[in-house]
Amino acid sequence: MANPKEKDKKTVSELRFDIVSEDWIVIATGRAKRPEDFQKERRKPILEKKDCPFCHLETQLPPVYESKGVVVIPNLYPAFSNPSPSLKKKGSQATIPEEKVGPYKKMDGIGFHEVIVTKDHNRQIAEFSKEEAREVIEAYYARYTTLMQIKFVNYISIFHNHGKEAGASLSHPHSQLIAIPIIDPDIKRSLNGSKRYWQKEGKCPHCRMIRWDIKDKRRIVFENEDFVVLCPFASRVAFEVRIYPKRHEAYFEKINDREKDNLASALQKALSSLYKGLEDPPYNFFLHTAPCDEEDHSHYHWHFEIIPKTDMPAGFELATGIEIATIEPEKAAEHLRKFL
Q1: Which of 304, 72, 92 is nearest to 181 (CA)?
Q2: Domains and CATH numbers, the chain
Q3: Mean pLDDT, the chain, as a whole number?
Q4: Vertex 232, ends 227 and 237: CA angle to 5°?
C-alpha cells in the first residue's frame, strides 16, 4: 500500500502528452516560476516615424491590398523569388519542376512574400479596438484567398513577429505572408498527428481538447460565440496561447463574416492579456491551417498559435526536442484572465 505522505508529495516535474503531435512536454513544477517572474523591464528599440520605411510607402513596392488601417505590400527583401507571369496566373496548371542532384533533389525557391502593415506606427494589435483588429483579419483573409487560387501555391503561412527577440527587424507593427509550393514540416507533423487520431478514434483531436478545456475551465483565457482562447494542456513554452474556432473546420479560408468579427475579438483579447500581464513580451503568432493543395484534410482543425519568448531553449531541449515550460498552463491562464 502506498504511503499517504508519498501520495501527497509534489514531484519536481510533470510530463504531459500532446495527443496531436504525440510529443511529451515537461512542465517543470519543481522550478516553476510565479507569473510576475516573467515580467521584465524591456528596452524597446525606438524607430522614429521619419526613419520608418513602413511610414513612407513611396519607398516600397506598390500595395497589393489596402484598407483604412492596413496596407499589404510585397517584401522588398523576399525569402522567395517572385514568380513569372505564367505562374502568377490564377488557375494556371504550371508547376515548379524538381531537379535531382545525386541522392538529393531541389527546386527553385519560387513564391510570394508579402508584408501586412498596420498604418499606426506606435500601436500594436494588443492595443487595437475590435474594429481595428477586424481590419487585420480581413487583410489576412483577402490575401490568403487570392494567393491560394494560384496553382503552384500549396501552403500559405501567415505569421507575426513582435519584439527583437522574436525576430522583428522593425518596431513598426507588421505581419508577414509567405505562399510556397511545399508544405512546411511543422504543419505536416500537425496534419499527420491529427489524421492518426482521427483514424484511430473517429473524431478530431482538437475538437475533443476544446470541449474538455471548456468544461474544465482552468486553461481558458477567453471565449466568445465562435472562438476559444486557451493555454494548451501540453504547453511547449510558458504562457503559450492558442485560438481555436469552436466549429470544426480544417480550412481558414472558409471562415464567415461573423467568425471574422469574433476572431478579431479573440486575437485582440489574447494579445492584450499578454501585453498587460507580462508587460509587453516579445512573441510570435502564426496561423496553422490545412494546406490549399487540393487534398482532403477534413480531419484537421485550423487555429492560431501565440508563442511568447519567455525562456531560452538550452541543451536538454536542443538535444532531445523535448520542451520545458516553467509555469503550469493552468496558472498561466489564471494570470492572463486578470487582464482581459
Answers
A1: 92
A2: 49-89+106-180 (3.30.428.10), 185-337 (3.30.428.10)
A3: 89
A4: 125
Answer yes or no: is pLDDT of 23 > 50: yes
Instruction: Using alpha carbons only, give the angle 103, 107, 83 rounded to the nearest 5 degrees.
Output: 180
Q: Residue 168 has which C-alpha cell? A: 522583428
Would you place residue 5 in the very low, low, confident or very high pLDDT band (cuts 50, 70, 90)?
Answer: very low
Q: Pick the closest to residue 211 from 223, 201, 202, 200 (CA basis).
A: 223
Q: What single letter denotes the amino acid at residue 50?
A: K
Question: Sheet of 14-17: strands edge to edge?
Answer: 14-17, 24-27, 324-325
- How high is the pLDDT of residue 12? 67
Q: Which residues contact 320 (CB under 8 A, 6 or more apart)?
A: none
Q: Could you say which DSSP state residue 76 is in?
A: S
Whole-angstrom distance, CA of residue 260 vs CA of residue 137: 7
Helix (H, G, I), strand (E, B) or coil at 237: coil
The grid coordinates listed for 101 are 542532384
- Report how far apart, in Å, the C-alpha atoms of 316 and of each of 58, 239, 322, 324 are: 48, 20, 7, 9
Q: 229 burial class (0-12, 13-18, 19+ CB within 10 angstroms)?
A: buried
For 41-62, write each residue's pLDDT tens digit. 555 656 778 889 999 988 888 9
Mean pLDDT of the 247-262 span: 98
Contacts of 15 (CB under 8 A, 6+ apart): 24, 25, 26, 27
Count of helices and strands (H, E) across the chain = 8, 15
Lowest mean pLDDT segment, chosen from 17-26, 28-37, 193-202, 270-279: 28-37
- Determine the 3-state secondary structure of 60 from DSSP: coil
Is the distance from CB of 310 to CB of 237 less than 8 angstroms? Answer: yes
